[in-house]
Amino acid sequence: MATESPATRRVQVAEHPRLLKLKEMFNSKFGSIPKFYVRAPGRVNLIGEHVDYCGYSVLPMAVEQDLLIAVEPVKTCTLQLANTNPLYPDFSTSATTIQIDKTKPLWHNYFLCGLKGIQEHFGLSNLTGMNCLVDGNIPPSSGLSSSSALVCCAGLVTLTVLGMNLSKVELAEICAKSERYIGTEGGGMDQSISFLAEEGTAKLIEFSPLRATNVNLPSGAVFVIANSCVEMNKAATSHFNIRVMECRLAAKLLAKYKSLQWDKVLQLEEVQAKLGISLEEMLLVTEDALHPEPYSPEEICRCLGITLEELRTQILSPNTHDVLIFKLYQRAKHVYSEAARVLQFKKICEEAPENTVQLLGELMNQSHMSCRDMYECSCPELDQLVDICRKFGAEGSRLTGAGWGGCTVSIVAVDNLTSFLANVHKAYYQRIDGSLAPEKHSLFATKPGGGALVFLEA
Ligand code: GLA
């Protein structure tokens, strides 16, 4: 598993309407036929929100919606990118140094992240020349990881053009790192599941070292995704990075409180590992060591014995330099309790007691509450959607992905699915004006899909 590479599948393009359409559009755009195609899926996280960058495991599955890229390698060091969606303008470059503008999360920058990650891995300085046409059906800015799917797809495209080989794990690690060129300090969940997903199973993703374990979901229930239709692009605001920094600061203060060497500590998990205690015990340590009132930068400096300048330049990311309030207690409480819920979720799936669906639902409800109250990454529309889903029969419902907008995921007994979909549609979507995303992207049941692949025309 750890050394396995993404599969290459031979297909009759004519038998796959989406590939065929892409091939024809590619031909009219570039006047040639693609050499190969790559797909990388989006994902839904079932539980374990905002814990990956703290070192804790997450439990996502790939969705069937994906990013598809038709590719033709070219001899010149020129990259030409086009998108089937006219909202995303063409882009081309011959520059050998790939510039990624952190101030504007433009679509092609995500492609450049994947490309740059692979080029750097192999120490290549010349731009990998290619013509690419991108086609995506993951609703953007909806918490289903459309941007990471593009980074991963671009990484696998570049690898294939170069004729090199890497394992899925290596690809996931490279793409997780290179997506940070866009300016967000994300964890590795999205890229890992995009490469390591397998049809029919969710995955427990663990980090350092990265590995994925199958988690078989109960057969009596389905997971339903519903889009709040509030768009959230985590690279366009500082919400996401502020949370990452709050967790980093909480880890340092906890380590200092416990007389550990705190300056090298970056993740809340490291504190737990160094103390060798349980997550439940970490919650008690958090209560002793931190206070619920927000911390000012000055108080943090006093606690750590550093200057404001050192805090800004050595600990905080560039877009969080001017933050004046850090809620360390609440963020650490969320992370340690959420990390414990992930393990409980997996255990329940394995043991499969009679009330499995109800127990999983309860954990999902607790997760949403913690995201809403302790992590403050929800929004009124998501809270309302979660309430509606529960009212119409979901055993549990929660926001999924970074939050502040995007989708919810609900666990629904198979027997209730039809009425659930009809009622939620009526209660949430029919009530608002016609400006919402197309209905099929707004509310749908999903099954665990497969990971990134290369397609060759048979
Ligand atoms: C984004 C990040 C992930 C993860 C989630 C929140 O999707 O890219 O790494 O942190 O938010 O769980």
Descriptive keywords:
single chain, 458 residues, alpha+beta, four-stranded antiparallel β-sheet, 15 helices, 13 strands
Topology (elements, then pairings):
Elements: E1 8-11, H1 17-30, E2 36-47, E3 59-73, E4 79-83, E5 91-93, H2 107-121, E6 130-136, H3 146-162, H4 168-179, H5 189-196, E7 202-206, E8 211-215, E9 221-227, H6 239-257, H7 268-275, H8 279-289, H9 297-304, H10 308-315, H11 328-351, H12 356-373, H13 380-391, E10 396-399, E11 407-413, H14 417-429, H15 439-442, E12 443-446, E13 453-457
Parallel strand pairs: 1-13, 4-6
Antiparallel strand pairs: 2-3, 2-13, 3-6, 4-5, 7-8, 9-11, 9-12, 10-11
Helix pairs in contact: 2-3, 2-4, 3-4, 3-5, 4-5, 6-7, 6-11, 8-11, 11-12, 13-14
Bound molecules: alpha-D-galactopyranose.
Alpha-D-galactopyranose (GLA) is lined by residues 45, 49-50, 52-53, 145, 186-187, 189-190, 401-402.
Please report the number of helical segments.
15
What oligomerization state is this entry in? single chain
The biggest beta sheet is recorded as:
7 strands, mixed
Structure class: alpha+beta
Fill in the CATH topology of the domain at 8-215 and 448-457.
Ribosomal Protein S5, domain 2
Query: Helicity range of the residues?
Result: 40-55%
CATH architectural type of the domain at 8-215 and 448-457: 2-Layer Sandwich
- Name of the CATH class of the domain at 8-215 and 448-457: Alpha Beta
Secondary-structure element order, N to C: EHEEEEHEHHHEEEHHHHHHHHEEHHEE
Largest beta sheet: what is the strand line-up?
1-13-2-3-6-4-5
Number of strands: 13
| Broad shape | globular
Which consecutive residue ranges, at least 5 long each, have pLDDT under 50?
none
What separation lies between the terminal Cα atoms? 27 Å
Rg calc? 22 Å
Mean pLDDT: 95
Beta strand %: 15-25%
Bound molecules: alpha-D-galactopyranose
